[in-house]
Every structure is written in structure tokens, then in C-alpha cells.
TrEMBL record:
Superkingdom to which the source organism belongs: Bacteria
CDD domains (alphabetical): PBP2_MidA_like (cd01004)
N-terminal signal peptide: 1-25
Classification via SUPFAM superfamilies: Periplasmic binding protein-like II
Keywords: Signal
Listed InterPro entries: Solute-binding_3/MltF_N, TAT_signal
Keyword Signal recorded: yes
Span of domain Solute-binding protein family 3/N-terminal: 62-294
Statement: the UniProt record of this protein carries the keyword Signal: yes
Organism: Burkholderia reimsis
Name of the protein: ABC transporter substrate-binding protein
Length: 310
């Protein structure tokens, strides 16, 4: 899946959380205050702490987490331009609380996380990283959020729904080159052509502003990219709206996860902590704070099947 946005089935969304209108309202009032007075906190989880007893932490009494502050609501900088805030920092704080440790966030460029994690600069990466079979060769994973891509159109578009291959026939769709969302669209095009339908025209932009001009001006019909950042934009500007979602691993699932060094022994403890946070309701509260309740998972897993190599 795509793990950075040059920022992140209708039935799936309905089952996963509050209605879209509620999520829309939440993202429209995102908290960018560096004090984060509304951040959800959690109690110590003795079972998770025991599970991590054999792990050698990067810093005493701390949970050191790499994060790429790319764009809200997943992670960004607060109004002081220093404090990292968003759904991923909130989740990292909950896990640190559960482990009885102080959270230390290390801002990084997203592309640098594999080397930094392998070299022991931090305990974990919580930065919209997706589970793939290739990555599982080097890293362990604890899932914490659905990997969703969203189809978005300009607010006045006549397009009401995109849920299956035939819905994109003949459309002009903005997406990212070399991404999982592009892979999905190419496969949908292949199926449409086999059925005698017109393929979608895929459009690629290096600049987010240019891609938005294309969508709003009608030079593109829709955009398929990570849902979280597009949902935030829709709530903030009202200029675009969601007409569908698809899992990043389509036709299978590929969820977002904490990455840790393979064989370090930390992943099982993080999975225990996450499932306790889900059960207590703290996890859901933290996601709802950023309007991402539609991306909630029912249960965390350690090293689940990931996106295969294509």
C-alpha cells in the first residue's frame, strides 16, 4: 500500500465506525494546538509490559518512535511548527502509556525509516506504514488501522458512487505513480477492457496543488489516493467529497501497522497493548478525535498477511 501521501467498500466504512458526517465534523475541527489538551491517554497495561520484558529499549524508560509529519490528520506539525500532532502521534502516546514509558517522537523523512529502524535509532515506526510481504522479511508488524484509499470527486460532480471496476470506465482519475492505488486502477482497467468497457485514463502529478486544480476545474473526474488526508481536505474545504473507498491491498487486505525490528520481541507486546486499547475504547476515542473512526480495526494482529509483491 501507499504509506505516505504527499501528505494518507461503503459497507466496510459503515461497519467500521461512525457515519461519514460525524467523521467530517471531527476532521473539520482538528486540534493543532501544541498543548494537545484533548489527547486521549491510557493506563499501564501489565500484560503488555511483561511481554516486552526481554526487549532492549533504545532509551531507558522511553518508547522511542519514528514518525514522518507529512500532513493532517495522520501526522503534522502543530501551530508552533515543532510539536508533532495527529492520529499517529495520539496512538503512539496510548501505546507508550500502556507500556508505562515516556513517549519520545523522532521526526524523520518517511523514506529514512527502514535504515533508522534497522540501525537501532528508535524502537518502532508509527507513520502510516503498510504491511507488505516484502517488508515482513526485515520487520515485524502490529496492525492498528485499516489501509484505505478513497475515491474523491469535486463537490458538484454528478458521480455518486465508485465501488467496483465498472464504475471507473472512461473516467479520468488522478492517482500516484508506482503506488498500490495505481495497481488497483490498472487491474480494474484490465478487467473493464476484458468486458468491453473503456479503461479509465490515469493522471499523475508531482504537485498536489496542480492535481487539485485539475480535479476542481473538471480536467479530472476523480482522485484515488490514501483516504485520511483526502477526508481531512474534504472536511476543511468542502470542495471535494468521497464517493467510495477500497482497501489498499485489494482484493485482499493490507493494513497500517507499527514496524519494529524483526525478531526483536517487541511486536507481540505492542499487539497486546493495542488490543487492550481497543477493548477499553481508548483506541476508538483517539481515532474519532481526528475523524478516522472509519479506519478502525476490530483487532490488532502480529505479522498478518500483507500486500504481496507484484
Amino acid at each position: 500500500m501507499t504509506d505516505r501521501r504527499q501528505f494518507m467498500t461503503a459497507a466496510l466504512v459503515a461497519a467500521a465506525g461512525l457515519p461519514w458526517r460525524a467523521a467530517h465534523a471531527a476532521t473539520a475541527t482538528a486540534d493543532l494546538d501544541p498543548r494537545q489538551a484533548g489527547r486521549v491517554r491510557a493506563e499501564r497495561d501489565d500484560a503488555a509490559i511483561r511481554a516486552a520484558a526481554g526487549y532492549r529499549w533504545v532509551r531507558d524508560d522511553a518508547f522511542t518512535v519514528a514518525i514522518s509529519p507529512h500532513a493532517p490528520p495522520v501526522s503534522t506539525y502543530a501551530t508552533d511548527a515543532r510539536t508533532v500532532v495527529g492520529a499517529d502521534p495520539d496512538y503512539a502516546q496510548l501505546v507508550a502509556d500502556a507500556l508505562g514509558r515516556t513517549l519520545v517522537l523522532v521526526p524523520i523523512a518517511w523514506a529514512d525509516w527502514p535504515l533508522g529502524l534497522t540501525s537501532g535509532k528508535y524502537d518502532a515506526v508509527i507513520s502510516n506504514v503498510g504491511v507488505t510481504e516484502k517488508r515482513k522479511e526485515k520487520y515485524d508488524f502490529t496492525t492498528y488501522r485499516l489501509g484505505l484509499h478513497g475515491f474523491y470527486v469535486r463537490t458538484g460532480s454528478p458521480i455518486a458512487r465508485i465501488a467496483e471496476p465498472k464504475d471507473i470506465a472512461g473516467l479520468r482519475i488522478i492517482t500516484g505513480a508506482g503506488t498500490s492505488q495505481e495497481r488497483i486502477l490498472l487491474e480494474w482497467n484490465r478487467r473493464n477492457v476484458a468486458q468491453g468497457l473503456k479503461p479509465a485514463e490515469l493522471q499523475y502529478f508531482d504537485d498536489d496543488a496542480a492535481s487539485r486544480v485539475a480535479l476542481l476545474s473538471g480536467r479530472a473526474d476523480a482522485e484515488l489516493n490514501p483516504n485520511a488526508s483526502l477526508a481531512y481536505e474534504a472536511a476543511r474545504t468542502g470542495k471535494i467529497r468521497r464517493v467510495g473507498v477500497v482497501n489498499a491491498g485489494w482484493p485482499a487486505n493490507a493494513d497500517v501497522a507499527i514496524a519494529t525490528r524483526r525478531g526483536s520481541g517487541l511486536a507481540p507486546a505492542l499487539t497486546l497493548a493495542t488490543n487492550a486499547l481497543i477493548g477499553s475504547g481508548r483506541y476508538g476515542q483517539a481515532l474519532a478525535r481526528w475523524g478516522l473512526q472509519s479506519e478502525a480495526i476490530a483487532r490488532a494482529e502480529t505479522n498478518p498477511p500483507g500486500l504481496p509483491s507484484f
